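We treat protein structure as text, and this decision shapes the records that our systems exchange. The tokens are whole numbers drawn from a learned vocabulary of local backbone shapes. One such record is reproduced below, unchanged from the form in which we store it:
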Amino acid sequence: MDGVTDAEHMTDNQAASRFELTVGGQLAELQYRRNGNRLVIIHTGVPAGLEGHGRGGALVAAAVDRAARDDLTVVPLCPFARSWLERHPDVAARAAIDWAPGGGGSDSPGLSG
């Protein structure tokens, strides 16, 4: 996965509905929920000591890869995830993305703020 080294461990904890990235005993996470054929990204949290090293992006990329593998549409409600995907169209292109505010169903990036 993008941005994850051998010293880091990425897990899709489906029971808790979150991706977990453990680095040096610290946990970064991306919380999501499944809604039919949609993977709704709710929140991305990275401890201050892990910020600035691509860990949040690695979590978003892992969620996109899961969506692609399971034929799900990503709904990036989390502001960080949405912004990160907008800046990384190569990753966003791996799966269907619902860019509509609130995940209303449009697959085009008609962003209005």
Notes: Residues 67 and 95 are 6 Å apart (CA to CA).
